[in-house]
Design brief:
The chain is built from 2 helices and 4 strands, in the order αββαββ. By secondary structure, the protein is of the alpha+beta class. A hairpin with a 3-residue loop joins strand 1 and strand 2.
Length: about 120
């Protein structure tokens, strides 16, 4: 997921949205804050740092677990309704690892058009 998409969802929902609701493996901080731009990356590859390559496979369909506040356990079904209505029940992207390696906080991320090799 990207920070811009999370911020846009928070604004649309009217509440600060804790990223932990979505259990992301990665949250990318974009230089150009374009919400939901990651939806255009399907079939493309991200290079993370100097070694890691992941292929963006498809959008992530969401279930009721995003309604649970990770701090309080309180349920907010209106968040899932918002994602379902405004985003076809999709938020974030699934990816598969092409090349393993070490990832560090603040590593640069590059969008590559296709897999190498």
């Amino acid at each position: 997921m990207t920070d811009a998409s999370l911020d846009a969802l928070s604004a649309s929902w009217g509440n600060k949205t804790d990223e932990r609701r979505f259990r992301p493996n990665l949250k990318i901080s974009l230089l150009e804050k374009t919400p939901f731009v990651e939806e255009t990356w399907e079939g493309k590859v991200l290079q993370i740092g100097k070694e890691v390559m992941i292929e963006i496979v498809k959008p992530c369909e969401r279930c009721m677990i995003i309604t649970v506040d990770p701090e309080t356990g309180e349920k907010h079904p209106d968040l899932l309704k918002k994602v379902a209505k405004e985003h076809r029940n999709l938020f974030g992207m699934y990816a598969k690892v092409i090349q393993t390696g070490k990832i560090n906080t603040n590593d640069e991320v590059w969008l590559v058009d296709q897999k190498e090799g």
